[in-house]
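Because showing beats explaining, we let one protein speak, sequence and backbone structure tokens together, and leave readers to judge.
___
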Amino acid sequence: MKKTKTLIIASILVTLTLVVALFSGCSGKANYAEADLNFDGLSSAPTQEAMAKAIPVDKSKITLSDLDTTDQNVLDSIEYIIRLANQNIIDCDFFAAGSYGSGVATMTIAGEPIVGSMQTRDIRVFDNNTYYYDSYGLVVDGYILKKNGQRGKDVNEATYTVLAKALNFTERVYSPNNKDFYFSKNGSSDKDSLLKFPDQNAIIYTKPKADKLSYDEYIKKTYSRLDYKGFTTDDYDTEKPITAGLLTYNAETGIYYLEAEINCDDNTLKNSNDSMLANGAINKFRYAKKRIKIEIWECGLIRTYINQNMWEATIILNIKGSSENIYEQWFTYDKSKLDKMNIDQSLKDALMK
């Protein structure tokens, strides 16, 4: 939800900016990189120490299906595995994760459909009550959509610059003790930041000014339901959180793979919806579709997480729009494999000054 939230807010702000911007046939498209999450042993098998602490999957609770189904036994199995893996990562002593997100929003302004898109990157490292989180997002495209559904002219360079200034974001968080959280925004980034990911120098904070938050304040700020370390804030205590899905197991690799359609019509996504509606510019907001894809080791620790969703919104000036987003996250539990994500202590210390 964390990167989905960011993409949604950014897409809405794109619309507001476009209301006052001018368009022409000049190019406004940026060069950007495809995400590379194949670094630092991400998605490699957990260490013996990590596996020993995690609660393994109880195979007696599992009903498998290699096809999408509404069989409640399968859906209950999926829910059980998600809950288990989410709690295991909250309870583990160490994990690191690299993530990639992208979103494309279409808004109709004065009868003309405008398409804007962003990409995001982030890294998370939790190590025995210390936590480091670095995140950024960049506008990568903006254009007018033709009546036939084809791409029209790009926004002009001036408009693109305005969009980038308004929407590009950076966030850096450090906690030395899992009690105090130092949160800073507005670091320096450009299109090369996407190419540098996950290098810790992709974002530069020359004089970081950080807000100090308590654990409870940080939980509230991130709309976390259980703990900020979890990979999901969805509420699986609702009557039917999953409407369809599949669940398979590979005995050779020891990996469970699931896909699930999340219920968008009850309170399963309440935290996500509430976080969006807290934005004063949004009058109406709803998820139209959300599908998750997860790989989980049989020891109960998550390997990869993919969240694909579509939303619909009405904002001020009665502007309506929709968006498609994807967020992909890979995990590792092995410190010895860390290189690019072995964050310099000076970056953390700078936030506490």
Summary: Residues 18-26 have pLDDT under 50 and may be disordered.
